[in-house]
Amino acid sequence: MKRLTTQFLIQKLTNLKPSLDNFFIILILLGIPLNLYKNRFYDSSWTVGEWLISYAGGFVRRGLPGQIIHHISNEYLISPILLVWIFSVLAFISLAILLLHFCKDLFDKSFLLSQVILLAPISENYLIRKDTLLVLLYGLSLLVIKKFNQEKISKFSCILFVNLFSIIGILSHEAYGIWGLPSLIVIFYLLNRGIKKGIFRSILFALFYLIPSIISFAFCWIFKGDVQQALLIHESWQNLKDILPSIWTLNESKPYGAIAAIGWGTSQIYTSSLFSQFNLFIFWHPGMWLLTMYIVLRLFIGKKHDPFKSAKRSIVCLQLIAFLPLFLFVDIGRWIYMWLSSSALLFAFLIKVFGIKKILFHTDGFKGARFLKKIIPTFASNKTYNIFLLSIGLPHCCWSIGRYIVSNPIGFGIKNIIFYFKFLFA
To answer: From CA 332, how far away is CA 271, in angstroms rounded?
Structure first.
C-alpha cells in the first residue's frame, strides 16, 4: 500500500507542467505532512502548545480554542493532537480558498501561493499555530461586510457575524484586536460616510457596531494570565495523558512554551535585545528584517504594468501601521505573513466594495504617498519579480543565514526531499 501511494504521488507530480504556481503547490502539498509530523507531540510547546491554552484555571487570553479542544478530547477521548491538526489544516485550506477567490484577479497566483503568503506557515513550521486561523477569521469578517454591501444580508446579521468572527479571533489570540479591529472600524466608518452621515456620527457608529469585540479585546488585556493559571492548564492536560502523546514535557511539574508564557511578566518578553543581535557578526537583525520587509513590500505591489500598484502600495502601508507594535516582539516573520495576507484580503475587499477610484481618492491624498512611490517602486520585469519571489526567505522568528536559506522555496524544497527520502526509505 505504501509503495502504491508513493507511485501515485510521483505520477501526479510528474504530470504537472513546470511553473512557479505548480512549484509552490507541490511545496504546499509536501509541506503539510512535514508540519504535522514535526508537531505530533505535546512537547511541541510553541506550536501545539499554543492551541492547548485553555480556561482550566479561569478566563485567560488565548484560551478559547484550547477549551474547545479539551472539552471534545475529554468527552469523546479523541487525541488533542489530532484535533489541533484538523483545526490547523481546515483553517489553512479555508484561507487558501478565500484568498484565491477574493484576490485571483488582483494578484499573481504565484505570489499568493508563495512563501510570502500561503507557503509561509508551511515552509517555516508554524502551520500548527493560530496565525492562519486569525487571518481566516479576518477574511470571513470582510466577506460578511461585502455580502451586506451587496444587500444579500441584513445590517444586523452583518454586525452579528463580524463580531462573532472577531471575538473568536481575539479570544484565540489578542493580537487580532491590534491589527484586525482598526481596519474593520475604518470600513464601517466608510460605509456610514457613504450614506451621508457626518464624520463624528460615522466614527461613533463604527465603534458602536464593534463594541462586543472591543470589550473582548479589553478583557484579554485585563485577564492576561499568571503562573498559577499556566500550571492548572498544564495539569488539565496531564489528566488526558492516555490520549495525549508526549516524550517528556507532559510529565514535568511545570509547563513549557506557549502555556508557560501565559504566566510571563513584561520583564520576560523579548523586546529591546533584538537591536543588539547579529548573525555571523555581520548581519544586524533589525537591518535584515527591514530589508526583508522592503522586498516583500515590493512583491506585494507587483510589477510595473500592474494597474492597481498605487492602491496596493497605499493599503499595505496603512495596514503596516496597525502591525508596527507587534514588530517590537519576536516571531517577526509570522507578523509579516499575517500583515501581507490580511493586506491582500483587505485590498481585494476595498476594490470590490468601493472601487479603485475611491481607494486612490482616500489614500493618494495623504502626506507621504508620493514619497512612498519613490522609495518603494514596482518591479520592472516579470523575470526580476520571479527571481526575487524564488529567492526571498521569510524566517518565522530570529533572522539568520540558515533560517533564510531553509525558508525560501528552493531551500524548503531541498528540505522536503531530504525528509521524504529518509521517511520513505528508512
So the answer is: 11
